[in-house]
Design a protein that fits this description.
Blueprint (H helix, E strand, L loop, with lengths): L2 H19 L19 H17 L14 H4 L16 H19 L22 H25 L7
Helix pairs in contact: 1-4, 1-5, 2-4, 2-5
């Protein structure tokens, strides 16, 4: 297995997890906060979408992301984490569709990389934490997994079955 194949496998695997973790959520479940000051799953899914596009659009040549509608990026920005209501958020179906389209565009661009490309220096706010494109792509995967852990807490609060 090459480095590109390994990164692609991780992107594909973590790309399937949001649909699995949120399969039994209703649209209203997406806006349940596990505790005061925590972000609900709707904000988190939108944040994953916006963050992946932002980080990789400046680092991953050939990533063809469709534009996001209106103030999507603002609603799901780190500056808007205190917003806990349901106003301005989308349906579960729309979030999962946007997430899948985003991850598919990322994977399509990664398929065109060489292993050497993974060593290219990354740019942007996470360059110090993930100094190469390969490490940045893996960080995108880790970011998805981190939020899955938070959704597990919401699942427990809602009385949903434990998945693992």
């Amino acid at each position: 297995m090459t480095g590109v194949e390994a990164v692609l496998a991780e992107l594909e695997a973590t790309g399937q997890m949001p649909s699995f973790f949120l399969a039994d959520f209703s649209d209203s479940d997406l806006t349940v906060c596990p505790l005061d000051g925590a972000n609900h799953a709707a904000w988190q899914v939108g944040h994953l979408i916006a963050a992946e596009r932002f980080l990789l659009s400046i680092n991953l040549s050939g990533a063809a992301y469709e534009p996001l509608a209106g103030d999507f990026e603002k609603v799901h920005s780190r500056d808007n984490t205190a917003k806990q209501g349901c106003e301005g958020f989308l349906t579960k179906e729309k979030y999962l569709e946007l997430f899948q389209k985003t991850r598919a565009a990322t994977c399509a661009a990664v398929k065109n990389l060489s292993d050497k490309d993974l060593d290219a220096p990354s740019k942007g706010p996470l360059a110090q934490k993930a100094p190469t494109l390969g490490k940045l792509l893996l960080l995108v995967c880790q970011h998805t997994l981190m939020h899955l852990g938070q959704w597990s807490v919401i699942r427990r609060k809602l009385g949903k079955p434990i998945l693992f």
